[in-house]
Amino acid sequence: MSASMSWRRLVWSVYSPALAGVFTRISDRLFRARDRRRGSSVLLLAPLLAEADPAPQCVSRPTGSAGAQGTDSLCTHFRWMAEHVPAFRVPGTRIHILTSPEQFYQAMKARIKTAKRRVVMASLYLGTGQLEKELVDCMEEALQRSQDCSHASDLKVSILLDYTRGSRGQINSRTMLLPLLQRFTSQMRVSLYHTPDLRGLLRMLVPQRFNETIGVQHIKVYLFDDSIIISGANLSDSYFTNRQDRYVLLENCSEVADFFSDLVEAVGDISLQLQPDDSVTMLEGMVHPYKGNRQDFSAVARKRIMEVVNTAQMRQQLLSRSEDSEDEGMGEDEDTWVFPLIQMKPLGIQVDEQVTQRLLTDAGPDSTVFLTSGYFNLTRAYVRLVLGPGARYRILTASPEVNGFFGAKGVAGAIPAAYIHIARQFYNQVYQLGQQKRVHLHEYHRPQWTFHAKGLWYYLQGQERPCLTLIGSPNFGYRSVHRDLEAQIAIVTENEELQSQLQEEQEMLYQRSTEVSSSTFERPDRHVKLWVKLVTPLIKNFF
């Protein structure tokens, strides 16, 4: 890179807490006192009464942004992200794109075995199969080695999972980890995040199989000393074998690793703590997520988490100013920027949503965006930006047979058909607006596999390779924006080798796809029953 990075005129972002939902306000008033147990089943419908998807804030396309498509460096195009989040500058040679579940699994096992200081893992849940047991065995070996090699056991293991999903069934994520917690109590922490929206009558009446639809811990971060894997994959056997996702490995990127370690610790602090006897407790001074006041919990949680973001942002700004004062800068090999983006709307944090909307708004007519989601359910705000004037889009989603709910029992079995209906509605919108030459929809096909990849690749005007990718847990849908805790990273790079890796990853996924046409929805296997169409609005909000 010919010019060193300059980050001047950066300002603090002001994050306004999201308005509490209708259900939250009603539920808190009804259940604040334990002796007040009167209520109505209508509360179960309250989450559906809230505005389905509020209109996005008006975002203009500023001069010098990616929409300008000038000859300025990538720094000029994307420096605005540093106004919202920390900007970590790293050598592109330390970032590697993994392409298969097997690579993902083996990379984790190898790094757990060699970890000396910390293993930090955040996921929706930990499965209970043989592959998951082998992963736990790796942690046990690493912890035992730490005890054997030092009088003071330096290795710490911290696991963050979702409470509802991690507690489902008699054999679950908790029972998988209890032996480690019992044996290495001083070195092991297991935190179980519980959404503040599942409380009161709703918590009592929603079946265990469906309680996670209200909101979950959805962040997927796997950290080993100073290396980290950001992904959308959970810790479960299918994600290690035949469920296609995306995975990026950042080797020896200590500042990025420190940030995500601090983030997971912060979310862990507001979560229930698993004890060796399988009970759960809250840290002293923390508000309980479903027994305490809803607004108080969100305020405490938001403050704790934003302390991590703001502290890291300030540190990176000061570091950048210090480097700007030096003639040599940071060195030409540090050609890549990593921006962590978090979305936690139940806690009033919507950084990822703001950055994603700005990115889609700025995407000019000569840019190309490849966007993928295993569950194609864009929010109305994102749909408006995609269908408005701007970049060319190629959107990849799961065909019905590779949808994770394909073949499921009961109501869940109708979910793939609901996504067919959603895709058809979007396809019809594209044609009604005359955007069919600019916006294309693709379906991923692969026998005996499921599709769970999400993110985007951004190609600037005249570029053969992408210069930016979003990769992590968000699906760009209602749940990701409004219900769950999410995290991803934006990688902006001028490193040609890393750009080539991103291009190969994108092409590999799209090579297994077919483009959707009007005839696609006329096939017999794409018929959607009337009752499925009627319940699709509910599915869009909860799945």
UniProtKB/TrEMBL annotation:
InterPro entries on file: PGS1, PLipase_D/transphosphatidylase
One Gene Ontology cellular component annotation held by this UniProt entry: mitochondrion
Catalytic activity: a CDP-1,2-diacyl-sn-glycerol + sn-glycerol 3-phosphate = a 1,2-diacyl-sn-glycero-3-phospho-(1'-sn-glycero-3'-phosphate) + CMP + H(+)
Subcellular location: Mitochondrion
Primary localization: mitochondrion
EC number: 2.7.8.5
Keyword terms: ATP-binding, Lipid biosynthesis, Lipid metabolism, Mitochondrion, Nucleotide-binding, Phospholipid biosynthesis, Phospholipid metabolism, Repeat, Transferase
PROSITE patterns: PLD
Pathway involvement of the protein, from the record: Phospholipid metabolism; phosphatidylglycerol biosynthesis; phosphatidylglycerol from CDP-diacylglycerol: step 1/2
Keyword ATP-binding assigned: yes
GO MF annotation, one: CDP-diacylglycerol-glycerol-3-phosphate 3-phosphatidyltransferase activity
Sequence similarity: Belongs to the CDP-alcohol phosphatidyltransferase class-II family.
Annotated GO biological process: cardiolipin biosynthetic process
Protein name, UniProt field: CDP-diacylglycerol--glycerol-3-phosphate 3-phosphatidyltransferase
Reported function: Functions in the biosynthesis of the anionic phospholipids phosphatidylglycerol and cardiolipin.
